[in-house]
Amino acid sequence: MADHPGRGAHLTDLAVDAVHEISAALKILLADVFALYLKTKNFHWHMSGQHFRDYHLLLDEQSDQIFAMTDPIAERARKIGGLTLHSIGEIARLQRVADSDAEVVAPLEMLAELQADNVSLAASMRRTHETCDAYDDIATASLLENWIDETEQRAWFLREIIGGPEEA
Asked: Which one-letter DSSP state was computed for residue 9?
């Protein structure tokens, strides 16, 4: 392939332009997933307040689920013959999930921010799915469908906490 001098045969029956567009979309998605992972861990580490234990454990579970997406996203780009992230600097250039550098964030504000980020990530995954559909890449689309469901579940859990009545 042109992107990989000396590699020889294609790794997939996907067209070169399909590999380029899909792997580029996956690279941006991966940057967002890493950004959301670190932000979720940040809030997990800095959680406080009356519901500390519940929120702390929830964010730990959610961060594990988010991190579990990273390797499959990167490996999928490589399986089809594309490239993926190379550095933290590249993540910083590509990410669309905003960092949180505030020293203190109220617990419900943390959860609201993560809820919005998960909704945004699900929308990004849908756009990537549309790219896959355009090139008939059902394998990548299938992975995305599961991650969209997981992402929407995280958003739902967070929304129920921030939108529900506070416990006495």
From this structure: S
**What is the rounded CA–CA span in Å between residue 120 and residue 94?**
15
| Residue ranges per structural domain of the chain | 16-163
User: Checking phi first, is residue 136 left (phi over 0); if not, alpha (psi -120 to 50) or beta?
Assistant: left
Fold topology of 16-163 = Ferritin (1.20.1260)
CA distance 119 to 156: 9
Helix (H, G, I), strand (E, B) or coil at 3: coil
Q: What is the pLDDT of residues 2-49, one digit of tens each?
A: 444 434 346 789 999 999 999 999 999 999 999 999 999 999 999 999
Q: Which tens digit of pLDDT belongs to each residue from 132-142?
A: 999 999 999 99
